Amino acid sequence: MDTANHHLLVQTRRLRRQRRIRKRLNGTPERPRLAVFRSSKHIYAQVINDEGGATLVSASTVDPEVRAEVKYGGNKVAAAAVGKLIAERAKKAGIDKICFDRRSYKYHGRVEALAQAARDGGLLF
């Protein structure tokens, strides 16, 4: 198999996993969705109300608050810092219950660290 076809196959599988997870999750005003995006160097989290189509709060490793705390954004320490920050911002916005959207990522490593830090910060899911 050549690399172009392999890349297309991997991308298709990732999209299928993402859709399979998203069809069960829907962010409401009472229980918005915490969506995670992970790149090789950074991790991003958004609390989204799908009914209104609006991002309520967000945090990532490119935020100045997190950058001051961690040197590199692509590890579990950085993910935990983002989880803690998203929990603080959500609590400030009056959000305490969420549903967790891991997208196509396994609940492991950085995604798990972010989720655990958000739980420790007071978010319920």
TrEMBL record:
Is-annotated flag, keyword Transmembrane helix?
no
Answer whether the UniProt record assigns the keyword RNA-binding to this protein: yes
Listed GO CC annotations: cytosolic large ribosomal subunit
List the InterPro entries: Ribosomal_L18, Ribosomal_uL18_bac-type, Ribosomal_uL18_bac/plant/anim
What's any GO biological process attached to this entry?
Answer: translation
Q: Give the highest taxon in the source lineage.
A: Bacteria
Among SUPFAM superfamilies, the record links this protein to: Translational machinery components
Sorted keywords for this record are: Ribonucleoprotein, Ribosomal protein, RNA-binding, rRNA-binding
Which molecular-function annotations from GO does this UniProt entry contain?
5S rRNA binding; structural constituent of ribosome
Q: What does this protein do?
A: This is one of the proteins that bind and probably mediate the attachment of the 5S RNA into the large ribosomal subunit, where it forms part of the central protuberance.
Subunit structure of this entry?
Part of the 50S ribosomal subunit; part of the 5S rRNA/L5/L18/L25 subcomplex. Contacts the 5S and 23S rRNAs.
Instruction: Please give the NCBIfam families that the UniProt record associates with this protein.
Output: L18_bact
Report the family membership: Belongs to the universal ribosomal protein uL18 family.
The protein here is known as Large ribosomal subunit protein uL18
Species in which this protein is naturally found: Paludisphaera borealis
Could you tell me the gene encoding this protein? rplR
